[in-house]
Automatic annotation (TrEMBL):
Species this chain originates from: Teichococcus aerophilus
Protein name: Thiamine pyrimidine synthase
Transmembrane domains' residue ranges: none
Listed pathway(s): Cofactor biosynthesis; thiamine diphosphate biosynthesis
Catalytic activity: N(6)-(pyridoxal phosphate)-L-lysyl-[4-amino-5-hydroxymethyl-2-methylpyrimidine phosphate synthase] + L-histidyl-[4-amino-5-hydroxymethyl-2-methylpyrimidine phosphate synthase] + 2 Fe(3+) + 4 H2O = L-lysyl-[4-amino-5-hydroxymethyl-2-methylpyrimidine phosphate synthase] + (2S)-2-amino-5-hydroxy-4-oxopentanoyl-[4-amino-5-hydroxymethyl-2-methylpyrimidine phosphate synthase] + 4-amino-2-methyl-5-(phosphooxymethyl)pyrimidine + 3-oxopropanoate + 2 Fe(2+) + 2 H(+)
Family membership: Belongs to the NMT1/THI5 family.
Cross-referenced InterPro entries: NMT1/THI5, SsuA/THI5, TAT_signal
Annotated keywords: Iron, Metal-binding, Pyridoxal phosphate, Signal, Thiamine biosynthesis, Transferase
Quaternary data: Homodimer.
Length: 339
């Protein structure tokens, strides 16, 4: 079967979800990697395992921590993992350069990107337009920095005299806290709580998420290689269904989700991560779009915008078609995805 047969050509296309293997059959092993070390939102998969949701849907899942969305995308594309959770923007350049290892988003967990401009009150910046002439910091090549020009156009930010300072990702938030840069770009829920961790008062943190200020892009997603999906449609559908059920369980009982993660990592800060998850839930997961259309709803126009923005940011001359890297084929019926 040609790859295009399982890819969504347009939003709302009527596609039959593959039948899910019954729980009584032999469980299908799945190698799954996260985007980072355990954080609050990962509780959806911890609960899916602990509550037997994966098992009931015919899966035996091994979940490993990640080392950044870019690393996760590369490892899934290389075949080291069957499925990954990664910022879908990372797949645009990867797919353009490696069409034979193409990644496909099969469930958009984050309906909105977490990318944001973050600063503190000590900088004196009170609006996005106030970034003009300021010193911004981010690792060189980091996604939120790369797509900042597109965000600046959408938010009418004059960028001509903005100065950029590059640093290692683990130094970004410390440098902001110390006043070595005026503002940074990065994931809101990461930088926000890192600043709290180094002593910045929450009332002194100021942030402008891209998605809420003109550049409404998709965020992190469940992805798999196109050829793996061709061979394992039942497993893919079962994983997506289990993920949504795990998310429902997490939304219904956040403390249980944090406890499930702490069981896996004794140093896990359950109180902080519950707060991080609350921010992620409210800003990236339970968006107005999801509340109206259900978990994982795919808007192909937004998918096309994401490809266009990333192609421009990375100078990609042959960007992949949005229909080649987004599909809703593996989602449960709409009635099972309502919030």
């Amino acid at each position: 079967m040609q790859r295009r047969h399982f890819l969504t050509a347009a939003a709302g296309a009527a596609l039959a979800m593959p039948a899910i293997r019954p729980a009584s059959a032999q469980a299908t092993p799945i190698r799954f990697t996260l985007d980072w070390a355990l954080q609050g939102n990962h509780g959806m998969w911890a609960l899916a395992e602990d509550k037997g949701i994966f098992r009931e849907n015919g899966l035996s899942v091994r979940m490993d921590r990640g080392f950044g969305s870019g690393d996760t995308a590369v490892k899934v594309a290389a075949g080291a993992y069957d499925i990954g959770f990664t910022d879908i923007s990372t797949a645009v350049k990867l797919n353009a350069e490696n069409p034979d290892k193409r990644l496909v988003s099969i469930y958009q967990v984050f309906d909105r990107t977490a990318a944001a401009v973050i600063t503190t009150k000590r900088s004196g910046i009170t609006s996005l337009q106030g970034l003009a002439g300021k010193k911004l910091g981010a690792p060189e090549g980091e996604a939120s920095r790369m797509i900042f020009p597109a965000f600046a156009r959408a938010a009418n930010i004059p960028i001509g005299n903005i100065q950029w300072t590059s640093m290692a990702s683990n130094l970004r938030d410390t440098m902001l806290a110390q006043g070595q840069v005026d503002a940074v770009t990065g994931f809101l829920f990461t930088t926000y709580f890192n600043l709290v961790g180094v002593g910045i008062k929450e009332e002194d943190i100021v942030a402008w998420p891209y998605a809420e200020n003109g550049l409404d892009l998709y965020g992190s997603a469940v992805v798999a290689r196109a050829d793996w999906l061709e061979k394992n449609p039942q497993a893919a559908a079962a994983f997506v269904k289990s993920s949504i059920l795990g998310l429902r369980a997490l939304l219904a009982d956040v403390p249980a989700g944090m406890a499930a993660l702490k069981k896996r990592e004794p140093l896990f800060d359950d109180k902080l991560e519950a707060r991080r998850f609350a921010m992620t839930r409210d800003r990236c997961i339970l968006t107005p779009n999801v509340k109206q259309n259900g978990f994982g709803y795919l808007d192909m126009a937004r998918a096309e915008t994401l490809v266009k923005v990333n192609a421009e940011a990375y100078g990609i001359q042959n960007p992949p078609a949005a229909a080649s890297m987004f599909t809703d084929k593996f989602l449960p019926p709409a009635t099972e995805r309502q919030v």
